[in-house]
Every structure is written in structure tokens, then in C-alpha cells.
Amino acid sequence: GQNIDQPTEMTATEGAIVQINCTYQTSGFNGLFWYQQHAGEAPTFLSYNVLDGLEEKGRFSSFLSRSKGYSYLLLKELQMKDSASYLCAVPSGAGSYQLTFGKGTKLSVIP
Amino acid sequence: EPEVTQTPSHQVTQMGQEVILRCVPISNHLYFYWYRQILGQKVEFLVSFYNNEISEKSEIFDDQFSVERPDGSNFTLKIRSTKLEDSAMYFCASSEEDNYGYTFGSGTRLTVV
Prior knowledge:
In chain A, 0% of the residues lie in helices and 56% in strands.
């Protein structure tokens, strides 16, 4: 099965950089997703990593190390609107379309 | 930008009653999903649907649950006899192909009293 661990909460200052970590155990690796979820809203797709390394997309970057079962989401130049939960998710297996989500990291951006 | 539409946004129902949650996936998407999120907990997979049949379902998706695509646009989740523990936000999602580029709907908050 799949197991995902993320910190429950983080606080960071507007304009700063924050790194949200995710460790996972899967029976077969088929990529790792990051989603953003504002309170009471739907998850929205941020990134998908299937190969090792860093992928940058504007202010957000995502890193993956398959050998370590580790990923992080890096948010730069934090804005107040970045206050949200960030969900790490992995597919449940080869040929499976379902995602297993972590509990999410609630990020609070303060002035 | 195309979006997945869910109705109603909030539904309150009495325990034991049947509810139908409705979703209109993005028009050219072929894969449909239901997830739920109990307040304060993680997003959980319920069921995936392709080519008019269930592809996968989780342990949560027991005999009380069913899905249907009654016409070319709607995708519904029915809970036959609701329980208090069914109170959650229910998200519909769709994807164009057998990849994981889901688009989630804005959700239906179901409250069972």
C-alpha cells in the first residue's frame, strides 16, 4: 500500500521561501503530485514529478528523489494568498488511476 | 478555462435518506472520479469510472454507494441510506485520458443529521 507523511502545519513570512517536505512509501512508483487546497475549496494541481530532480514552475518548484522516497515543494516570494494546505499524493499503483493523498501541510503566511 | 461543475454546493439530509450528488465533468474528458474529504482529514478516493463502468473503487465505496452517467454530460454519486459518518465534502474530478491530470470540481458539502 501507500503511506505518505507531511508536516501538519508550517508558518512563513510574506516574501520568504518555504520548503514543504513529503516522504512516501509505495508498492510501485508512478510519480508524485502536489496539490494546493484553500480552505473549503477543491484541490488544484501544482506539479507532477516522475523523474528525480527539481522542476521549476514560476514561484513554485518541486523536487523528487525516488531512491529516498522524498519530495519537497518549494514556494518562493511568498504571498498572503499562498496560505493554504499543500497536499502530496501518489498514484496507487501501475494501471491505477486513483491517487492516495497525504494529510496535507497547512501553510500560514504572515505579514 | 473549462471546469467541473458540482451541484448542490451544500446538502443537508436526515440519516437514512438517499442523496444524489451531481457533477458535470469537462466535456472532452473520459475518466471520472469521486473523492471525499471528511472535515480536517485527508482527501480519500471513492471510485473511478470509464466507458460507462466502474474502473476501481475503494473500501469506502460499499453497497450504499453507486455511480451513474445517466446522459452524455452528468455523472452522479448516490448514497442509498446516509449515515452520520457520510458527512464530508465530496469532490468530483475528471481527466482527459488515462493520466493523472485531474480537474476537481468545487465540491458538495454533505451534512447528515
